Every structure is written in C-alpha cells, then in structure tokens.
Amino acid sequence: MIKNSVAKFKGSCLFMVCGVISWLPFHTLRIFLLRALKAKISWRVGIYRGFEVRSPWKLKVGRGTIIGHNALLDARMGLIIGNNVNISNEVMIWTLHHDYNSSTFAQAGQAVVIEDYAWLCSRSVILPGVTIGKGAVVAAGAVVTKNVLPYTVVGGVPAKQIAIRNRDLTYDLSDAVLPII
C-alpha cells in the first residue's frame, strides 16, 4: 500500500515537472530539461509551449521535427518520432489506454511510431500501436486506429485513405522553428 502511494506521488511530481517544462520560453531550454529526464531529442527540434509528455524517458524525437502547441505525447509504452515530422497544434498521440472489455478496466497499449516527413494535422488522434508511414498525412480531426501506409493521406473517424502524397519530400522543418514561441 505504501509502495503504491509513493509511486503515485513520484508520478504526480514528474507530471508537474513536465508541465512546468512545457511552459518555459525557449525550445532549447525545454529540450535540455527533457533530455535531463532521459528523452532522446535532437537539438534541431521545435517543441512549442503547452505540450504534455508522459514518460519522457521513453520518447525519441528526430531532427527537424516540430511539435505544436498543446500536443499530447504519451510515451508510456514508447513513442518514436522521426525526422522532419510536423505534429500540429492539439494533436494527441496515445500509447496506452483502457481495455473496455476488461472487468477491472485494465490498461492496454503498444508503442507508436511516426516515420520521417509525416504530418499530423491539428486535433488528430493517434491510438496505441499505430505506425504512421514515411511522408503520410493525417487530416485535421482524424482518429487513426490502424497503421497508415507511407505517402498516404488519411482523414475521418476512423481514418481512411483519401489521397496520395507526393514522394519527393526534401524539406528541413528545423529552418522554420521560431526561437522563443
């Protein structure tokens, strides 16, 4: 009982620390502190204010990636984000949720992988165990329950293919990061 209470207290403190980090004024300061919590994040990343990260030590973010305001990054089961990924404002990426068939409402989940050049538009939701393929686009408000093939554009609830994306992607999003926002 006491061991469980201590673990809950530690988890609550870590959640508050990550919350404070998310409102600091500079990307480099936020990245530095997340790295201190064992997150693997390139220095050439833009993490905009108000984000939420769970289990930062299980988070990996590649070079040139931008994470928008109020994005939720649930890394409890592992979250790998590639290079030059655009995660827009208010995106939610979940790696753990509850099993609705469980009599005890047990948790279930798997890691999420977002490959290079993917674009997750505002307010899209990625559920546990999903891989978003290279260059794929998830439309605003979509709920992704299954893997998305490379260079595929998906939208809707649940997300379904609506288009194909150009494969000739060479941009570097780190050039677009505003230093103080």
UniProtKB/TrEMBL annotation:
Upper lineage is:
Bacteria, Pseudomonadati, Bacteroidota, Sphingobacteriia, Sphingobacteriales
Gene3D superfamilies for the chain? Hexapeptide repeat proteins
What cellular component GO annotations does this protein have? Answer: cytosol
Which InterPro entries does the annotation name?
A: Hexapep (IPR001451), Hexapeptide_acetyltransf (IPR051159), Trimer_LpxA-like_sf (IPR011004)
Keywords, A to Z, come to:
Membrane, Transferase, Transmembrane, Transmembrane helix
Q: Which family does it belong to?
A: Belongs to the transferase hexapeptide repeat family.
Q: Name one GO molecular function term.
A: O-acyltransferase activity
Where in the sequence is the signal peptide annotated?
none
Bilayer-spanning residue ranges: 14-34
UniProt organism field: Mucilaginibacter pineti
Stated name of the protein = Acetyltransferase (Isoleucine patch superfamily)
